[in-house]
Design a protein that fits this description.
Radius of gyration: 23 Å
Strand content: 25-35%
Number of strands: 15
Oligomer: single chain
Length: about 325
């Protein structure tokens, strides 16, 4: 089935941080966004061509990597990262219109949100009872409809992403109530493999390096391919390949673009020393940082070195 050019999946349900991130990715402006229940079903819809792409969380500045997403990148049919977005994780206390902060006695949210907002709740609503729901969006929907939760009780307010207040017509009683004010979640747009976007000068390249066997210096061999070419790594993490005990691969984010000579040569070096290398894409960095290029590591420097070598070979 050919992929739709206007339909994109995202990790649902509706009115969560993932939907908020998807709506902020420029490439998806005007596209139809559809929630999927799991990361696997969202990415699998990309693989089968049911959708043109999927937005899923990849890592959080507080909790680290989202392993379910990493495993989708490592295993199964290859997919590619086409874009990334950094979304501030801010939690909002919301309620039906007319509800006041002093009138809140029962709050519903998701366990992750509750952990982030526990200090605020203890200080501001010390007598309120907090219940846990399946998602922050479901909590907001429950409050909006005045419907009881799994415990059969009604809730006065919900803690959810700001987008949920707009989606379910709730009034904001307090904003940005999370304990970590600098929390960010990195979301990525997954597509089927193809030509990466054009280099911007502020780019990131992601890949998976599969070692040939478990031997002393295996990780060093990988790191040397980048270090000797002046390529900085922003992230490296080991994950099991799923092909037996003790078999691991490395998921890597590197500064630069596939079209940068230093990055291209690093990938060629990996190809020589690794059992396999899965290219996950080169794309614009969400933070806009333009990394410095060391002396002797520019595209012009690499071209000059190639021309010099060819002149020696030709006599």
């Amino acid at each position: 089935m050919p992929a739709s050019t206007s339909r994109y999946a995202y990790l649902g349900p509706e009115a969560t941080f993932t939907e908020a991130a998807a709506r902020r990715i420029p490439a998806l402006a005007g596209a139809a966004l559809e929630p999927y229940s799991t990361v696997h079903t969202a990415v699998d819809a990309v693989r089968t061509g049911d959708v043109a792409g999927a937005v899923v969380p990849l890592e959080n500045s507080v909790e680290g990597s989202v392993n379910t997403t990493l495993d989708e990148l490592i295993r199964g049919a290859p997919v590619m990262i086409a874009a990334e977005h950094l979304l501030p994780v801010t939690f909002t206390l919301m309620a039906r219109t007319g509800t006041t902060l002093t009138g809140v006695r029962r709050v519903i949210t998701h366990p992750v949100a509750e952990a982030q907002c526990r200090a605020w709740l203890s200080k501001t609503l010390p007598d309120a009872v907090t219940a846990m729901g399946s998602s922050t969006a479901a909590a907001a929907e429950s409050v909006s409809g005045g419907s009881p939760g799994v415990d059969g009780e009604l809730y006065d307010a919900a803690i959810a992403a700001p987008i949920a207040a707009e989606r379910y017509g709730l009034a904001v009683l307090a904003d940005d109530i999370g304990e970590d004010k600098d929390a960010l979640t990195r979301f990525v747009l997954i597509t089927r493999p193809g030509r990466p976007p054009r280099s911007t000068g502020s780019d990131k390249t992601s890949l998976v390096a599969y070692i040939r066997d478990d031997h002393p210096g295996a990780l060093l061999e990988i790191l040397e391919q980048f270090a000797t070419r002046g390529v900085n790594l922003t992230r490296i993490e080991s994950r099991p390949t799923g092909n037996g005990m003790g078999r691991y691969c490395f998921v890597i984010d590197a500064e630069g673009h596939l079209n940068d000579a230093r990055v291209g040569e690093a990938l060629m070096g990996l190809r020589r020393v690794c059992a396999d290398v899965r290219f996950l894409g080169s794309y614009a960095r969400a933070d806009g940082v333009r990394p410095p290029v060391g002396r002797g590591m520019s595209n012009a420097d690499f071209r000059d070195a190639v021309e010099w070598l060819e002149s020696l070979r030709s006599g």
